[in-house]
Amino acid sequence: MPTTTATALAGIRDVLVGTTVEGEREPASSAIGYGLTLARAAGAHLTVQSTSWRLSGDDAWLGDFDDAGIAVIDRRLDTLARSIAERAAGDAAQAGLICTTETPSLSYPDVVSRLAERARLHDLTVLDAGPRTYDLDRETIEKALLFSGRPVIAVPPAHTAFAARRILLAWDGSAHAARAANDALPFLRAAEAVEIVAVATEAEIHASLPGAEFAPHLARHGVRVAVTDLPRAGDVADTLRAQAGRLRADMIVMGAYHHARVREFFFGGVTRALLRNSPAPLFLSH
Length: 286
Fold this sequence. Notes:
The protein has 286 residues and is α/β, with parallel strands linked by helices.
C-alpha cells in the first residue's frame, strides 16, 4: 500500500524556522512559508525565530552613529522582527497549527550561535538560502549544520511552499551522504519518485554502478527509487543542477561540507555553490 504524505512525515514533530532582520526593510523570506506548509503537511509544531540583528558599537562602520542613533535603529529592527513573528503566528493559527515565536535581539556572532543551539531542540530547521549582507544566510546555515547535529532545509528564493513529490538524492557512498539519506527518509518515503544520482568518473562507472549499491536499502524502506550515474565532467554543482532540472525535483538531498581527499564529491565548494544557486530546496545533513 502506498505511503501517504501525512503518514510518512509523522516522525517530524517540530520544525524550526529562522529568519533575521538586518536592515530596515523586511527581508524577503521563503523559509517562513515553506516551513509553515511543511509543518502543516507533517502535523508538526512550528517554531519561528525572528531575530533582529542588534548593532554593536564595536563595529567600525558604525563610527558615524552616536549611541542614541544606534538605539533608534535597534528599536526599528526589533519592531520589524516582532511584526514578522506575529504575522507568521497568525498564518499558522489559520492553518490550524500550534506555533511558538521567538524574537531575540542579538549581536552578529550571537545570531548564528543561538540558531544552532535552538536547532538542536527540533527535528529539522528551515532557513533561507539567498544573497544577504555579510553572507549571513550562508553562515547561519553552516553553523546550524556543523553544530546542531540536525538537518537543515535551505530554501532558495520563491520556493514558498513545501513539496516533495520528486526528490534527487545525491550519492557518493560517503558517511555524510548516508547520514543525509537517513535523516531525509520521511521525505523519501513520501515522494512519488526518488532518483539516486551519483557523479563519478568514467572508470568508476564502468567498474560499478555507484548509486546502485544504496538503492536496495531505500527500497526496503518503501522508497520508490531509481538510479542515475552521471560522468563527472566539469563542475559537479552544475551537473546536479542540470539533473535536478530534468527531474523537475522538488528537493535535493545531500551530505554537506564533506572534506575528503579520496572522495571529493561534496567538497565544501559544491555545497556553497548550490546554496548560492539551487533549482530546489536543499535538504542538508553533516
